[in-house]
Amino acid sequence: MFKTIKSIPFMFVVILLGCDFHNQDDNSTQNDGEGGSVCVGDETTGDSDGDGICDSDDPCPLELVWEGNYEITDANSLDTLRDYAEITGSLILDPQFPHLDGPECLMRIGGDLVMQGNDTVVTVDGFQRLEEVAGHLSISHNTAIESLDLGGSLNSIDGGLYLTQNPYLSSISISPVLQNVEGNIWLVYSFSLESFKLPEELSYIGGDLVFSRNFSLVSVEFPNSLEVIDGDIDFSRNFDLAELNLGNGLTHIGGRFYFYENDDLVNLEFPETLESVGGDVYLSSNHSLKTIRLPQSLQSIGGSLDISLNYYLAQLVFPTDLESVGADLAIGKANLLTHLELPASLTHVGGYFTLHNNQGLISISAPGLESISDKFQVHENPNLPTCQPVEIMEQLTSFGSACIQNNAVDTCDDFTEGC
Question: What is the pLDDT of residues 79-102, one digit of tens each?
Answer without folding.
Answer: 999 889 999 999 999 999 999 998
